[in-house]
Amino acid sequence: MSETTLRELRSEVLAANLRIPQAGLATLTWGNVSAVDREAGVFVIKPSGVSYADLTESDLVVVSLADGSVVEGRLRPSTDTETHRCLYRAFPSVGGVTHTHSEHAVAFAQARVPIPVLGTTHADTFNGPVPVTADLTAEQCARDYEYNTGQVIVSLLEGDDRRAREVPGALVSRHGPFTWGATATASLENAIICEAVARMALHTLALRPGGAGATPPPQHLLDRHYTRKHGPDAYYGNA
């Protein structure tokens, strides 16, 4: 990796991490964003336990994609580093990963309920419900816990990179959301969207006692909203 590329990656990762508290997605230091350089075989991630107010580019940690060792940095990387590494290794399209403990998405994770598709706002980004993983076993928690957290997400998506692109996020049971995208910025934006649609879903379900009538919209409407932003016929925006 060139110094220029690493500097650019650090800059993006720092900016994405700083947006976590700005977007109301984290309490204290509960959250992290990373980005990968696949050609160099490394990714850059937030250090463990450093407050967002104090975070600088020099604090960020460069980690080997192959074995999780620290390549560069004076601080310990996030405790969730191995989860990020697992997702990068499983899904070639993923360039950035975000993990938060945002309130409404965590509520679904703790209830072990997928975030349902109840409207077009959800369908603009997620081509289906945001799924929830199985609980980790005692063995998975006792050894390689963070990597196994990634593994239950990979298993949930059946290791399918296309599915990971179409539904760029998952809820880890009893834990919280992980989202991803082509870049660190995209993964953070998907985290913001995940929290927003979780909040909207909870409000919608509250208006329908017992969930009566809170059914998905017609599939043709959901498909139209997803495909106008994604895929070969997308026409949203001016990029």
* CATH class categorisation: Alpha Beta
Outline: globular
Q: Would you identify the regions where 5 or more consecutive residues have pLDDT less than 50?
A: none
User: What's the main sheet like?
Assistant: 7 strands, antiparallel
H-E order: HEEEEHEHHHHHEEHH
CATH architecture classification name: 3-Layer(aba) Sandwich
Calculate Rg over CA atoms. 18 Å
CATH topology: L-fuculose-1-phosphate Aldolase
| Beta-strand fraction estimate | 5-15%
Provide the spatial order of strands within the biggest beta sheet: 4-3-2-1-5-7-6
User: How far apart are the termini?
Assistant: 27 Å
What's the structural domain tally? 1
SSE inventory with pairings:
Layout: H1 3-22, E1 31-37, E2 42-45, E3 61-64, E4 70-72, H2 81-90, E5 96-100, H3 103-111, H4 120-123, H5 138-142, H6 145-156, H7 161-166, E6 169-172, E7 176-181, H8 184-207, H9 219-227
Antiparallel strand pairs: 1-2, 1-5, 2-3, 3-4, 5-7, 6-7
Features:
239 residues; alpha+beta; L-fuculose-1-phosphate Aldolase; 9 helices; 7 strands
